[in-house]
Design brief:
The structure is a homotrimer of 131-residue chains.
Chain A (H helix, E strand, L loop, with lengths): L1 E7 L4 E4 L1 H11 L4 E6 L5 E7 L4 H13 L13 H10 L2 E7 L2 E2 L5 E7 L5 E10 L1
Antiparallel strand pairs in A: 1-8, 2-7, 3-5, 3-8, 4-7, 5-6
Chain lengths: 131, 131, 131
């Protein structure tokens, strides 16, 4: 089963996808398998992290800006090389297990699109494999 | 096939899962497919890295502490934002190919749970998909 | 379906795999599913990033060298702990969705083997799961 969703983003930020992905899993009728959440962009990413305290998301953005700052010797003329770095460090997809009809997320885990170079209209693809 | 294992951790550290995951693959009887190893926590992660020299694991922890240190302007009140950052940079799961009845790991590759904010009791889920 | 390819690398660099992976997908005849691209090494990785402007790849290598430099207190005697760190931060595999007979990559996305400790002869495994 294959699904798709669109997210309008600000300059930087985390956008929760958990509920939409859960809906896709329910719609699919698949009760055992895996679910791949994928974003087809090179300055955005998908991650799993805390869903309770939104300051975690702010801290994640801050910590990534510190780890991957802009360097004067970057050569890419668009000036968004830090966003490309964050995209590869976080990754373009996550895989979650489906068990007994549900995404097997931990209590504090949510699935997020990470925008590192918005504002943009971003796509997310969701593929569910039974097994 | 779905399996689960529990790991008791120290404050920080790498905990090898390779043998347990191999056992699950044997138990499943699946000879061709993929194996997803997933941890449902937001301050722990799963990675694949060197299984021979334990100083690599110590260096990985050191290098991650340097890349993702504590910053005074973090806002999350629990004080463990570096652990959340490391969890998203490393990732909550790995996927390994199963071929001819075995996990297709390289000679020097082991599968590890990474604890960034212990001591805790951590879960790992293992899902095997035939195909 | 399981495929394998070998890449001869320089000291550091990005090696595009997109075309080879596309060929494997065509050869498999699988039109809906997922494709896992995996490297069995601990100082190399697989990532998805920009395929248009090669300066992005140079900037990614530079930004990773800055985020994960060599520290005097590293203990691993081979001296390549930064390469091990980059391998775990980027990851040993990527998963791409197959839809209507094609890898569902974005316009600007390419699949790359990342060499962090060459020159070497590196393997990549490609596993395609229908579903």
């Amino acid at each position: 089963m294959f699904y798709q969703t669109t997210i309008k983003t600000e300059r930087e930020g985390f956008y929760e996808l958990t509920e939409k992905v859960n809906d896709f899993v329910q719609k699919s009728g698949i009760t055992e398998g895996i679910c791949v959440i994928y974003t087809p962009h090179t300055t955005a990413a998908v991650t799993i992290n805390e869903n309770a305290d939104a300051t975690v998301q702010a801290d994640l953005l801050l910590g990534l800006r510190k780890a991957f700052p802009f360097w004067q010797d970057f050569r890419h003329s668009e000036g968004n090389s830090p966003a490309h770095l964050k995209a590869s460090a976080i990754g373009s997809s996550v895989t979650v297990i489906i068990h007994e009809g549900h995404l097997l997320l931990g209590t504090w885990q949510g699935i997020y699109l990470c925008e590192f170079d918005g504002p943009r209209e971003r796509q997310c693809y969701v593929k569910i494999i039974a097994g």
